[in-house]
Amino acid sequence: NDLRFIVVRNSALMALREFDRAREGVKQGLAIARTSELLTQEGNLRLLAKDITGARASLEEALRTNPQNLAALELLASSFLIEKQPEAAVARIRKHAAEHPGSAQLQYFLGEWLLRVGRKEEARAAFQAARAADAGSALPALRLAQLDGSEGKLESSRRILNELIVSDKRAGEARLLLAALESEAGNHQAAVEHYRKVVAADPRNVLALNNLAYLLIEHAGQPDEALQLAQKAKELAPESPAVDDTLGWAYYHKGLYGSAIQHLERAALGRQGTALRKFHLAMAYFKAGERNKAQKVLDEARRLDPSLPDLKAAENSLLQPRKPPGD
Q1: What's 267's domain CATH number?
Q2: Mean pLDDT in each 10-residue stretch from start to end of the chain (327 residues)?
Q3: Rounded to two decimals, what is the model's pTM?
Q4: 60 vs 321: CA distance, rounded Å
Q5: Domain ends where: 32, 64, 84?
């Protein structure tokens, strides 16, 4: 009758979708003690059974027992989303956070939900409240830096991120954000240096490997190093379209068009085929002499994003007449 064992077993049964057995386990556990974890499991099972009223009763009790139970709060908010009431979901979270203003994690949780529904300024206030509740908490600071960056407040974003790096609190994440910020601002050399530091600290960081490789291709003229980095990223994330795009683009800049096409097709022809990825593939087709394929994929890229800067140059290349054999 060990409660911890019962809770863990219930979680395993739910993961296996053995919901009837999980319900029996929850019932057994609640007969011993009405803990917040067991009540959360009961609420989850009731939601799965579409018993929204019963689920809310269980989850409200779970929160009364442990106000910091984010899993219960998440499920409670989700119960309103099931009924297509996102405003009610946010209102319930806001009420709970207001009842516990000193909880950094609840203020942060509120901020995340406000971001979900597009309320950036209210989210900013929630993240600031989280930071005020716990000045040492890094997650709210990261979110504030992201918000500042998205609004063009680059100096404020840099300041927050550099503070996190110096304090060594989530320094890797902060440096990744700073690299992306500098890249977006056109400070490509600074972005390269930040990505290099991330890779030095974490050689298996796929995002840093991939983004560093792409910057080295596009802005540093270093396709050899870029190819090595992209190959490493491919080993770590073999199914990533973003990695295939970078790897293919590195092969393209090495003049290895067959290898480039192999990877660029994987990146561009699936559901995640962006305009830029299709442009890369079109250029590889063109260099390989497959002009019809190049034109088709370029047309697809134009439909997705007519403002893509590289499209005009690609179209001019395709309009050039073929050179006669022997020229």
Answers
A1: 1.25.40.10
A2: 92 97 97 97 98 98 98 98 96 98 97 95 97 92 95 95 90 95 96 97 97 97 97 98 98 98 95 93 96 94 90 70 51
A3: 0.82
A4: 71
A5: 84
